[in-house]
Automatic annotation (TrEMBL):
PROSITE patterns the record matches: IG_LIKE
SMART domains named among the record's database cross-references: IG, IGc2
Keywords: Membrane, Transmembrane, Transmembrane helix
Transmembrane segments: 15-36
Cellular component aspect of the GO annotation: membrane
Protein name stated in the entry: Ig-like domain-containing protein
InterPro entries tied to this protein: Ig-like_dom (IPR007110), Ig-like_dom_sf (IPR036179), Ig-like_fold (IPR013783), Ig_sub (IPR003599), Ig_sub2 (IPR003598), VCAM-1 (IPR003989)
Pfam family of the protein (one): Ig_3
GO biological process, one term: cell-cell adhesion
Gene3D superfamilies named in the record: Immunoglobulins (2.60.40.10)
Originating organism: Oncorhynchus kisutch (Coho salmon)
Length: 365
């Protein structure tokens, strides 16, 4: 007997084994093939579905009858651990159910309550009550039971978009146990999500999240949590993955602050500071003095300082300039002119500084 193994491309987890049986006459007469994953990762305390199918060569099709059974063998010694014909509790070392139809060349099997005992190689044997009794030599795959489920994956792995763009995120998590698929939850809940279980050789469940990017989403962490329930009353297990959203947006909430705050007295210095929220951050600010319908450019920079002459009273405008847009903010500055008045009282003459708008302070001459 000679064998040849054909494997799928490196980025897949499938392996196809072809076994060629040579007749006594020396001519090639049969071609057996089986397909199943090379590796299966399962959660300890839960079940796992083993996708499995096979083909038979000419001359053996008629031998594939209802009498056929599937046997799973463990380790290099190929110890029988599951026999599909044994349905009673405790008759198999590993409890399970062959869900595939052997007469349709399907050998998919569900094995229950995974433990570290499963951390070994397994292979499949087809056995009928006739001449068809066949091991699939070399068709071994590796179980990796884990106490902690693998983290779900997010696609795309990063979100870097313009404000107003539609964003679609897909969260995918392994679902090795058909009866206990994980529940996927998005945080925060930005919109309704849709879940879908994909019947692929490597079973996964996916959840789709759609939302429209806003500046309020910038810097926000979006996470997807996979919650796994387990068999035999064992506690739930969960795993989480997240990404940070980057949203590009033009200046927003532009404002002008005045320092010092309160009344502005003629002759004192006052500083106007412009601030704006944008991504990337605003680096260019331009200041204007508004006179009716005209605007006179005063300078540039985040801050602008006035010497506070009475004639400087009026409306001032700051414009935040950005590659994605611009936004303006205005402030009204009233500069108070002070008048010194002296009064004679019974003891000493006293002087008071009086604003033309209100009394600011009173000091001795």
């Amino acid at each position: 007997m000679s064998t040849s193994i054909a494997t799928s491309p490196q980025n897949t987890s499938q392996i196809i084994l072809h076994i060629f049986v040579v007749c006594i006459s020396g001519v090639l007469c049969l071609d057996f093939a089986a397909l199943m994953p090379q590796n299966i990762e399962a959660l300890s305390g839960s079940c796992v579905a083993i996708p499995c199918s096979f083909t038979l060569g000419t001359g053996y099709e008629s031998s594939l009858t209802a009498s056929c059974k599937g046997i799973w063998r463990k380790g290099w010694r190929r110890v029988h651990v599951f026999d599909s014909s044994l349905t009673g509790t405790g008759l198999n070392t590993i409890q399970g159910n062959l869900t595939g139809n052997l007469q349709q060349k399907e050998c998919t099997t569900i094995l229950n309550d995974f433990t570290s005992y499963f951390n070994d190689y397994f292979c499949f044997r087809l056995e009928c009550d006739n001449a068809l009794k066949y091991n699939f030599p070399g068709l071994f795959f590796f179980f990796t039971p884990s106490e902690y489920p693998s983290k779900p994956t997010l696609s795309p792995a990063t979100v870097d978009v313009m404000e107003g763009a539609s964003v679609s995120l897909i969260c995918s998590a392994a679902a090795p146990c058909p009866s206990l698929p994980p529940t996927l939850t998005w945080t925060p809940t930005l919109s309704d999500s849709v879940e879908d279980l994909q019947e692929t050789p490597n079973r996964v469940i996916t959840s789709l999240l759609n939302f429209t990017a806003s500046h309020v989403h910038h810097g926000e962490k979006i996470s997807c949590t996979a919650l796994y329930k387990r068999q035999a009353g064992k506690s739930d297990k969960s795993s989480k993955t997240y990404l940070t959203v980057t949203v590009l947006y033009p200046p927003k909430n532009t404002s002008v602050s005045v320092s010092p705050s309160g009344s502005v007295v003629e002759g004192s210095s006052v500083t106007l500071t412009c601030s704006s929220n944008a991504n990337p951050a605003v680096k260019n600010y331009t200041w204007y003095r508004v006179n009716g319908t005209e605007a006179v450019t005063l300078g540039s920079g985040e801050s602008f300082t006035l010497d506070s002459k009475a004639s400087d009273s009026g409306e001032y405008c700051c414009e935040a300039l950005h590659a994605l847009g611009a936004e303006k903010a205005t402030v009204l500055i009233l500069i108070h002119n002070l008048i010194v008045k002296c009064y004679q009282d019974a003891v000493l003459p006293r002087c008071y500084k009086q604003s033309i708008y209100n009394w600011l302070n009173m000091t001795l001459c």
